[in-house]
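Writing this down once: the sequence line spells out the residues, with the fold written below as integer tokens. This is how one looks:
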Amino acid sequence: MDLQKRERRLAYKLMAPAMIVLLVVALYPLGHVFYTSFTDRVFAGARDAEFIGLENYHRLLAMTIEELPPVIDEETGEQQIDEETGRPVYERPIRVLPRQPHAYRELTTFSLFGTRYVLGARTPNFIRAIGNTLYFTIVSVFLETVLGLLIALVVNSEFKGRGLMRATMLVPWAVITVVSARMWEWMFASTRAGFFNMLLDRFGLIDRAIPFLTFRPFQIPAMIAIDVWKTTPFMALLILAGLQMIPQELYEAARVDGASKLRRFFTITLPLLKPAIAVALVFRTLDALRVFDLFQVLLARSRYSMASFNYYELVANRNMGLSSATGVIIFIIIFIFAIIYMQMLGVED
């Protein structure tokens, strides 16, 4: 027992320096961000910050749904119809959304069971930023995982030039994000210089140039395409490491038993790859949810990610309290994704 106690005390002593570094480098700043999110602190401001509770979170997340009443024609007594579109005319959202005690702005409008509604938010740009980031994250991480798995399976097999292929596949990942963003900005350009528009025009697939980076429906898919090109090699590298940890004896035994390649993949490869895939998903999702550079370089303030919204609130508006609350929300979303991955993939360690 005395030996166990001495070993336990020694273990605590050996761990102490690492815990102190972790406390100083990670936990203290995180705790400070949590505290600042409950204040009205101004970045680089002289006045003292005041505690305002959950006001910053309410400002970021508060939403309301209001019914849009139809506009009635005074002469006919019926709902007005737009002459150009032929659609019924409803009251303007700005006249319906609450202005007191807090002003709400239009986020979107929708119809349900024949009734028109407006969804309003105190900070619609942040709500849109959450949607943009989640859309970007879910689609890009899914594509990168699938493509990364396929690439890892290819480069893990025996063929001539495998080493060269492994080195080549890392080239996109090695390119600095700002550089790759500028490169793809040129390829997505809506002029004759744009590679994709030139290619589509050459094959007669388009009548006029497609504005990939200025037309809203194409903006996020363009961001996803750039990110998939750049980050798929990272996923392939992590999955490849997991593949190489699987004992070859298992495949040999399955081959002797007459199992097909497809059956070996689903009964041996995929189950034993779960920890590697979980690590890859957590790392990649954490990075995707914090995406800043792509949105900042290519879209600037025309469309936000959560991180770019956070940047503008801190630097442009100097609202450190609101910026800290944004950071906390990003942290919580990342934490939720990590828990979901662990539960879905059954990873306990």
About this structure: Residues 63-121 form one domain. Residues 191 and 274 are 45 Å apart (CA to CA). The chain has two domains: 63-121, 125-345.
